[in-house]
From TrEMBL:
GO molecular function: hydrolase activity
Compositionally biased tracts (Basic and acidic residues): 108-144, 154-166
Presence of the UniProt keyword Thylakoid in the record: no
Pfam families linked: AAA_lid_At3g28540
Keywords: Hydrolase
InterPro entries: At3g28540-like_C, Mitochondrial_chaperone_BCS1
UniProt-recorded name of the protein: P-loop containing nucleoside triphosphate hydrolase
Region (Disordered): 108-166
Domain AAA+ ATPase At3g28540-like C-terminal: 42-113
Record flagged with keyword 4Fe-4S: no
The organism of origin for this protein: Arabidopsis suecica (Swedish thale-cress)
């Protein structure tokens, strides 16, 4: 009976990846995983479904601004839904949509600052690499020049013996 039970057990593994394009293709080829589920960012069509479900509205004056912001900003559907959920009985669709606009603007600004920081860090890394390459080139040139000096004037036996003794 115990042996039969072991045969019925199925191992199931779940893997979560944020950047599928960074994975080794062998890991995600056919037959390796049963399901590939893409969890994309919220865009306007998904927002409209969420707004209808949470706020029971199909249009609003802020839809134009929200459309622009959700297309420019990477925000998950869960984060959008959290902003759309009324926080109290007094919250209406207008308050929830304004909260979403504010959150999208903050997320957009955060992404802009992060991109600026990354650009600055990349410039600093490139400058360090350039400086290191210049130093290595200079060192190589000096070594070649010093090597030529030694080749032109080999140490006399007397100089060499004195050098070794010290």
């Amino acid at each position: 009976m115990q042996t039969d039970m072991k045969c019925c057990l199925i191992k199931r593994k779940q893997l979560l990846f944020h950047h599928l394009d960074n994975l080794d293709p062998a890991l995600i080829r056919r037959g390796r995983m049963d399901n590939h589920i893409e969890m994309s960012y919220c865009r306007f069509e998904a927002f409209k479904v969420l707004a209808k479900n949470y706020l029971e509205i199909e249009s609003h004056d802020l839809y134009g601004e929200i459309k622009r912001l959700v297309e420019e900003t990477d925000m998950s559907p869960a984060d959008v839904a959290e902003n759309l959920m009324p926080k109290s009985d007094e919250d209406d669709a207008d308050i929830s949509l304004r909260r979403l606009v504010k959150s999208l603007e903050e997320e957009k600004e955060k992404a802009r600052k992060l991109a600026e920081e990354e650009k600055k860090k990349k410039a600093e890394r490139d400058a360090r690499r350039q400086k290191k390459a210049e130093e290595e080139h200079k060192k190589k040139k000096e070594t070649e020049e010093n090597g030529n000096l030694f080749e032109q004037r080999p140490l006399a036996e007397k100089d060499w013996n004195a050098d070794v003794m010290n």
